[in-house]
Amino acid sequence: MNQTRREAISTAALAGLFAVPATGMAQAANTSASGREVKAQLASRLVPSPVNYTAILPAGYEAAQDLPLLLALHGGDGIEGFSFFPATVEAAWSSGDLAPCVVVIVNSGRSFWLDWKDGAQRWETFVMQELLPHLRSTFKVSQDARKLTLIGHSMGGLGGLRLAFKYPEQFAGVAALESAIEPTFDYGAMNVRNNFFRPPALMEAYFGKPIDKAFWAANNPANLAVAHAARIKASGLQIYLDVGDRDILNTFDGVEFLHRVLWDHGIDHEYRLVRGGDHWGRTVPPRFRDGMRFLTRQVFTAEGEDLTQVANRERINQMKKAANVDPAALRLPLPKTSP
Q1: Of 30, 73, 149, 235, whose CB has the highest number of CB atoms within 10 Å?
Q2: Are 58 and 93 in contact (CB under 8 A)?
Q3: pTM
Q4: What gap in Å lies between CA 98 and CA 151, rounded to an integer?
Q5: Which residue stretches of the chain are H helix?
Q6: Mind listing the pLDDT tens digit of every residue in the chain (339 residues)?
Q7: Domain residue spans in the chain?
Q8: How far is residue 313's CA from residue 307's CA, in Å, rounded to a whole number?
Q9: Strand partners, 73
């Protein structure tokens, strides 16, 4: 990326901290017990510029190479609503819930992490074509897609799922908490209980006026999961869904729907309906640590198949075959819950 795309770094004392090309560096750093926060900017012609971001570097970063990269996407309440996240990362590192990695928080405003219909803001393209190359050339992170993951809350959960499902070969995992997604494949069938917090004018800014229903569907995680099911499964993308059963925005409807879509199409994932969990509040930070634990277990330190169960699985598969049950069949669609 050329110099016009980057903001120069003003703190020379950080020069030894990064594997940084001459065209881009960090602005300032704060040191904590287990890592460092580096605040920086990235200029862009795709979105309102410059874009501020914070990189949280693990202890031992100076001696590290090819670290995993965890991109953190905030919700519609903006970066202020994500203020708990750096401390959550630090706590997760201290406890071993999160493997050493570079964590990057990007400030996008209420962007939807989407290329808007009118092209006024192109956040998806910014992430894929500008932000990720910039981070990979600026920090000591791996170029390998198998070490790139996403974690997001609310709008950020929606954005993370959209990016992961659109580009499953380019991400290894996504943890989406309280994702602000709707329980439908069709915008015209939307229930007001699932988008009452999004005024029509806001949705028209993203999806056109009048709303382009085909464009909305092309960016809806449930539609993407079905359209890209084969690619998602082939890629080995690790998927984590979390929602509270007391979510004040009713996002449990959409997350439950997506869980059922993934289940019915044989897309492996982990789904957690958290008892007493709300959209915000005291349950959210520890639930983020659960999501980090999932990404650490399934991506960063993945051990593969449990070899202690190979013989047992073969024995059970023989029993299935004897009963004319196909061991390789997709899961049965979840049944209706009313007689």
Answers
A1: 149
A2: yes
A3: 0.89
A4: 12
A5: 85-95, 123-125, 132-138, 155-166, 200-207, 213-217, 221-227, 229-235, 251-264, 284-295, 310-322
A6: 333 333 333 232 333 344 433 333 445 445 444 559 999 999 999 999 999 999 999 999 999 999 999 999 999 999 999 999 999 999 999 999 999 999 999 999 999 999 999 999 999 999 999 999 999 999 999 999 999 999 999 999 999 999 999 999 999 999 999 999 999 999 999 999 999 999 999 999 999 999 999 999 999 999 999 999 999 999 999 999 999 999 999 999 999 999 999 999 999 999 999 999 999 999 999 999 999 999 999 999 988 788 889 899 999 999 999 999 998 887 888 888 878
A7: 3-309
A8: 10
A9: 106, 152
| Residue that the structure tokens 């198998």 belong to | 146
Q: Report residue 248 as tokens.
A: 């004040």
